[in-house]
Amino acid sequence: MIDFAFATSPQRSAEELFDLFIFNEKLNYVLKNYSPKALKFATAYLEELSSLRDQIWKTSFYSQGRIEQLHTNIEQQVRQTLGELKKCHYTFKEDFLSRIFKKMLIYFVSEEQFLVTKKSRGEYLDFSLDRSFDWIDEILGMNFTDSEETKPLDYPRERLYLNSGKGVQTNFGSIALILSLLDLQTSKVIFDLGSGFGRIGFFVGLLNQIHRFEGFEIVPDRVEKSNQIAKNFNLTPRVQFHCKDLTRDPIDYERADIFYLYDPFQDETYQRITERVRRVSRSKNIQVITKGNSKSFIAPMAQAEAWPKPIVLQDGNINIFKNYQTQ
Ligand SMILES: C[S@@+](CC[C@H](N)C(=O)[O-])C[C@H]1O[C@@H](n2cnc3c(N)ncnc32)[C@H](O)[C@@H]1O
Questions:
Q1: pLDDT tens-digit profile of 265-305?
Q2: What domain count does the chain have?
Q3: What pLDDT is stored for residue 137 in this prediction?
Q4: Which of 56, 197, 258, 273 is the most exposed place for a label (fewest CB within 10 A)?
Q5: Are 145 and 267 part of one and the same domain?
Q6: Whose Cα sits closest to atom 23 in ligand 1?
Q7: Is 3 a member of any domain?
Q8: 167: left (phi over 0), alpha (psi -120 to 50) or beta
């Protein structure tokens, strides 16, 4: 058994949990799609891990029974560790998450490259961990049960995603992938237009202290909860959430260097916001990330303004637009 030694060694525990977690998910995949190819995929990952290799790779497990046994054992360790982590103090969780996020940046870029390469060779591997990090919500203290109490508001035309819980948010894996491809070498101001429960702000804020994040969200409950988490993790004022209806409330778009949009609006609002972003882009370098359908509003504007082609990720679901050439 791995001793996570929480109180004394966050570095070791964060890194080991990350490796263990990913290995566990890969074993899961092997069990569901048992084949020599799937097995090679999981074990190749283990070969990269110095911390786990010695402890797990003692005997060959080229049998389904052995994999099942390993999977049960590892899953138990992961659950136990997460349970203990939830009880830890915020300063510990903060350090822990920041280490996990750093590892995620590296992992998700290589996962994306791996899947793109496979696809270009005509080999489709139905595997991605980008939805596998929802447990981070629990460590952050997000409570979706409460969100079911969100009262319908007087905004019949806006897309509020009431009671959608986790479904209303960008996956942590996708956030890691995006952040690893943005130009973030110098301090940036990031605006999430329709910030939901605030995942992006927490990722940015816990990753490092360089950037400023502001989320704008129409549902008051979500803003309240996000600000509470930012306060618990000592992220304010670097990370802030504002209750705004972007169809009508003025905000200072000029302050942002980076805009994030994940399917927040109905068409009219998109048009209004796209115009604001266009204006900002004429006076400074900006980066605009779209997830889902938001692309269909930003892409024509970017093309009309002769921006370079965007970085396309996850089969086109995510696009990173920049109004300048990257070095
Ligand atoms: C799909 S969610 C994305 C949440 C978050 N950006 C993320 O990616 O995790 C879109 C959010 O936009 C919010 N929204 C919709 N219309 C809005 C408006 N007019 N002003 C501000 N927020 C709005 C919704 O309430 C919802 O929380």
A1: 999 999 999 999 999 999 999 999 999 999 999 999 999 99
A2: 2
A3: 95
A4: 56
A5: yes
A6: 194
A7: no
A8: alpha
Instruction: Give the full edge-to-edge strand order of the sheet including 287-291.
Output: 239-243, 212-217, 189-193, 258-262, 287-291, 318-322, 311-313
CB 154 within 8 A of CB 220: no
* Dist CA 286 CA 21 (whole Å): 35
DSSP 8-state class, residue 256: -
Residues 243 and 305 in one domain: yes
Q: Are residues 73 and 180 located together in one domain of the fold?
A: no
Residue 94 lies in a domain: yes
| Residue minimizing CA distance to atom 4 of ligand 1 | 196
Q: Residues with beta carbon inside 6 Å of ligand 1?
A: 158-161, 168-170, 192, 194-196, 199-200, 216-219, 222, 244-247, 262-265, 269
Residues 24 and 99 in one domain: yes
- Does some domain include residue 288? yes
Instruction: State the pTM of this model.
Output: 0.92
Find where tokens 């489709």 sit: 124
Please report, as a single letter, which amino acid is at residue 114: F
Question: Domain range spanning residue 20?
Answer: 10-125
